[in-house]
Write a structure and sequence with these properties.
Blueprint (H helix, E strand, L loop, with lengths): L8 H27 L8 H19 L5 H21 L28 H26 L11 H6 L7 H5 L4
Helix pairs in contact: 1-2, 1-4, 3-4
């Protein structure tokens, strides 16, 4: 059994691109979480959980787990909504509003001064196009059929770089 679509350059590129976008999303979420630690209300555990889920997804996507791509796209859509609410102040006060007089400066997770309100707002808004790109690339990757299997003779599989796992020759009785 071989996976012919996994041999295509565009499929390999899509797989790596999804993993890189997931890692970029993690970096942005951690920057906002750590840099605005004292100003985040109840999102701290959710942010760390979201980052952990994205790490697991990136690892499995690199192992050709096509089934996680729609889940990654769905989580990205949810994160777009959360980032839009926090960045544009749809739910009340945006990160940018917190830079005005009367608001305290955000403290870091490590006890020092956190990021400025403008930096936190910019990072939050930057999540929106990154997550939109994740949605598009994940859906394109899902449509590439990474899971398609093709049964070929052992010689053909070896020629394409697949290793003989031993079980395929034992099951094929008629030679």
């Amino acid at each position: 059994m071989i996976h012919p679509n996994r041999e295509k350059t565009v499929c390999k590129l899509t797989r790596v691109l999804v993993a890189l976008i997931l890692l970029l999303s993690i970096a942005l979420m951690l920057a906002v979480t750590i840099g605005g630690w004292t100003k985040l209300q109840g999102m701290k555990p959710i942010n760390f959980s979201w980052c952990a889920i994205y790490v697991v997804m990136a690892i499995y996507v690199l192992r050709w787990a096509r089934g996680l791509l729609p889940i990654a796209a769905a989580l990205a859509v949810l994160l777009i909504a959360i980032a839009a609410i926090a960045g544009f102040g749809i739910g009340g006060t945006s990160w940018f509003d917190r830079g005005h007089y009367g608001y305290g400066h955000a403290g870091s997770l490590f006890g020092g001064a956190g990021l400025s309100a403008d930096a936190l707002g910019t990072l939050t808004l930057l999540l929106i196009p990154v997550e939109a790109l994740l949605v598009v690339v994940a859906i394109v990757g899902f449509g590439q059929g990474w899971n398609v299997e093709l049964e070929v003779p052992d010689e053909e599989a070896r020629r394409r770089g697949y290793s003989d796992r031993g079980w395929s020759t034992r099951l094929n009785v008629s030679r």
